[in-house]
């Protein structure tokens, strides 16, 4: 009632115009696919890197999902749990796929649309693919190789110094990460925290790794890529490596030796003066830093602040060190590289098995148990008297270890060091070194530890088993008494000796009378006490020897009895 006749005519006209368009749209949405003349490729994912593209004749491994244009799936490699492995360009695939895969990169994903004439045509494929079907394949490329391929090596780190490279029959220790060509990790020595240790070039490894390790330096890092026929072949490893898979190993070489190797010695510094070189049977004190061939630290004597002390050439240390320490000078620095068969072998001891060891050694001192005191002398122009046992000597000294480490000196106090030779007041080697010296003479004494402070040394001052070096100047000397004497007469003995001592004439001599008399004789030059000792102690000792009955008094009978003894040891 609201519309006029004219308005109704306009509405009918619009419906007549719009309805055909709606019908066309509906038909188009449900129409069969438009036939394709050629394959159509939609690149759904392209990796940042593409080191290699598929070429005709290559072997490829890929996953796919096969669908009809309406999205209905007719096949999938994922469902079978295995990739599709095939040569490209050898008519092992439908023509459209053979054509479409060329140019793909590993890890690239394409949607490939193939017309029926390049697929299964008018015949279709059994009950799975109807005749004249357009096929869509969602393809992910995982691997590419060719029968002409060889091992590919890419070194991405090389050490500055490379003194040796891997050769056939060498034994190596290395770490690796093993992946498939698409980056899938299948194995790693790092996760096991243990290197892979093996011989190279003699068939202990897959062929590609045997080739890929040759020529490497210790510390070098390289990527080794190999085709499956140089890896695990058609069957893979039965676990993590599929059949026909290319392998990629990221390798760092840590160690390298040959069973025929001997030790190598690199002398890093020598002292200006080397009067003697070490021999078998010597006892040596040395510092060292121990590391593996790749620089990994494992031990140091410096960290313990104590030298390593041992006999050399006698099997007290590993065989390689026994050899490496022969022929060294005190003060020498040398590097000793020891193959494992001359070190800790396959098992290792607190270090990896089959490891090459590197020792940076500093020789502090060495000696031989048969050594005597070594004396170097500068005598004065006049040498009237030579020091002997019993003499009282005064001297200055500077004392060091063989490497120059300071021990002590009289120069700091300005006072001489005073001793009686033969009285055990200094180490044996010093006594031997002082005997025969003249006043004003200078000597350098090199004293082996068995004539010095021995294995224990002096706590906080002299290390155990240390060779000592003394620079000595004899300042003064007082001739001693004959051996065994503490007092001697310079003139004839008085026949009234006892009565002269007995001042109070009580027929006995006490210690005071005895002491006063002896000191008076010394003062008057009639007698001499042994120099270098406390006079009172000497006199007390003399008195005790005369007091036969130990009653604190000497009678004339005791005194005479003593005088009747053998004169060779009669103090009076």
Q: What would you say this structure looks like, in words?
A:
- With 572 residues, the protein is α+β, with helices and mostly antiparallel strands.
- It folds into 5 domains: 40-145, Chitinase A, domain 3; 152-257, Chitinase A, domain 3; 264-365, Roll (Chitinase A, domain 3); 374-478, Chitinase A, domain 3 (Roll); 487-559, Orthogonal Bundle (Recoverin, domain 1).
- Helices cover 17% and strands 30% of the residues.
- It is built from 11 helices and 28 strands.
- It has helices at 5-29, 77-80, 95-100, 189-192, 207-213, 319-324, 428-434, 497-501, 511-523, 535-546, 556-563; strands at residues 40-45, 59-67, 73-76, 84-87, 109-114, 135-145, 152-157, 171-180, 185-188, 196-199, 221-226, 247-257, 264-269, 283-292, 297-300, 308-311, 333-338, 357-367, 374-378, 392-401, 406-409, 417-420, 442-447, 468-478, 487-489, 508-509, 527-529, 554-555.
- The strands form 6 sheets. Strands 1, 2, 3, 4, 5 and 6 form a 6-stranded antiparallel beta sheet that branches.
- A hairpin with a 4-residue loop joins strand 8 (171-180) and strand 9 (185-188).
- Helix 9 (511-523) packs across helix 10 (535-546).
- Residues 1-5, 17-32 and 567-571 have low confidence and may be disordered.
- Its main location: endoplasmic reticulum.
- Keywords: Calcium, Endoplasmic reticulum, Glycoprotein, Isomerase, Metal-binding, Repeat, Rotamase, Signal.
- One of its GO terms (molecular function) is calcium ion binding.
